[in-house]
Design a protein that fits this description.
Elements (H helix, E strand, L loop, with lengths): L12 E4 L3 H12 L8 E4 L3 H8 L4 E3 L2 H6 L3 E4 L6 H8 L8 E4 L6 H8 L4 E5 L9 E7 L5 H12 L2 E5 L5 H9 L1 H18 L4 H21 L4 H8 L5 H11 L2 H21 L1
Parallel strand pairs: 1-2, 1-4, 2-3, 4-5, 5-6, 7-8
Antiparallel strand pairs: 6-7
Length: about 280
Amino acid sequence: MATTPIPADSFKLGFIGAGKMAESIARGVVNAGVLPASRIRTAHLGAHRRNAFESFGVTVFDHNDQVVEDSDVVVLSVKPQIVKDVVLQLRPKLSEKQLLVSVVAGTKLKDLQEWTGHSRFIRVMPNTPAAVGQAASVIGLGEAATEQDAELITRLFGAIGKVWRANEKLFDAITALSGSGPAYIFLAIEALADGGVAAGLPRDLALGLASQTVLGAASMAVNSGKHPAQLKDDVASPGGTTIAGIHELEKGGFRGVLINAVVAAAKRSQELSKN
């Protein structure tokens, strides 16, 4: 049976799960003008989460069934521990015309397709900087998802950051790098700020400088067209302060520790996805 195209100019977007990630995606989509809030819906009974979505015009129902019945694209944004129960409950309401999207960590497409009886699926791995419109998101296509479906989801997630496409077999490594990666950077910012305090700076100034320095360095890595090693060399003048600091980082195994962190997180992601 041919897949029915999702109307790019008039589709309705529904979120199953009304948490912070769903809110970040919905806000980004609205703020970028990709979709008006009037065509986005979710469900929650709690006043706090209802108010968060209603504050920018999203329709909030009482039950997930209502979201599914009134959406062309359905995004699963619930905790991994409950996703199977949630989708089994929704299965009778799903239509072949709908595109299903999962942002649920560690849950494979083959399982989602089996539980829903639905193969028009796209899996997305975003990360927490979605909250400030700077997500790194990767999409993987299910068996019946089309190129048009992929373009539609790329547009949606492009509203909250940058989007890449990859085979799902790479998702454990993606989880370890971009999914867990913000935590590594937060740790680095905290350590840099502590270093500033140890060198005599006030705490507020040290933290502000550390955060802005990481932001600026990342922007250069993204936009300069230079390899990070070249950017590093550009800062490290002969016999200067930077190379002295880099020497200490190398003695401490800084690069090896980061590499090991990503590999360890990828291994853990593989273990969790088998449970």
